[in-house]
Amino acid sequence: MKKGSNRMIRINDEIQKEISGIIRGDLKDPRIGVITSVLKVDTTADLKYCKVYISVLGDDSKKEEVIGVLKNASGYVRSLVAQRINLRVTPEIKFILDDSLEYSFKMDSLIKSVVKSDEEKADDENGLQE
Predict the structure, then answer these.
(1) How many structural domains comprise the chain?
(2) Packed helices 74-84 and 60-72: angle between N→C axes, nearest 10 degrees
(3) Looking at the structure, do residues 72 and 55 belong to the same domain, yes or no?
(4) To which H or E segment does residue 52 belong?
(5) Sheet arrangement for strand 49-56
(6) Structural domain of residue 122, as residue ranges?
(7) Domain shared by 114 and 88, yes or no
(8) pTM for the whole thing?
(9) Same structural domain for residues 111 and 130?
(10) pLDDT for 61-94, tens place per residue?
(11) Do the domain assignments include residue 1?
């Protein structure tokens, strides 16, 4: 079965939705902040393993703490996923920290600063020509 098949896309979307709901509602650990989101879920074709990419806004120690809590709770999360989604095999869940959002914010701010400096240079050059 190819990786981008409709079935795998539906399974990944359903697992992502359930894990997001579990993190927000069922995990009562105060160390998991409000700004913790499930960005992507990638399940193997045989449904044995599932990588869950998590984004946490905060400093590095907070990120590592949240990922540690989620790794410790992965068995509980897996059991809840098994109850909520009817799959023959419930995948083993591995939480992975994803910094792509912060990277995109950083790149966006760099691009904006370059555009601003280019505009300032253009204004200075226009002022000298007049």
Answers:
(1) 2
(2) 60
(3) yes
(4) strand 49-56
(5) 36-43, 49-56, 92-97
(6) 100-130
(7) no
(8) 0.76
(9) yes
(10) 888 999 999 999 999 999 999 999 998 899 999 9
(11) no
Place of tokens 């399974």: 11
Residue 78, amino acid: R
Nearest-angstrom CA–CA distance, 114 and 108:
10
Instruction: List all residues 6 or more positions away from 127 whose beta carbon is below 8 Å from its beta carbon.
Output: none
CATH of residue 60: 3.30.300.20
| Amino acid, single-letter form, for residue 14 | E
Half-sphere exposure of 92 (CA within 13 A, CB side): 3
The angle that helices 74-84 and 6-21 make with each other, rounded to 10 degrees, is 120
pLDDT digit string, tens, across residues 103-124: 888 899 999 999 988 888 877 7
What are the tens digits of pLDDT across the range 5-19? 899 999 999 999 999
Distance CA 35, CA 88 (A): 32
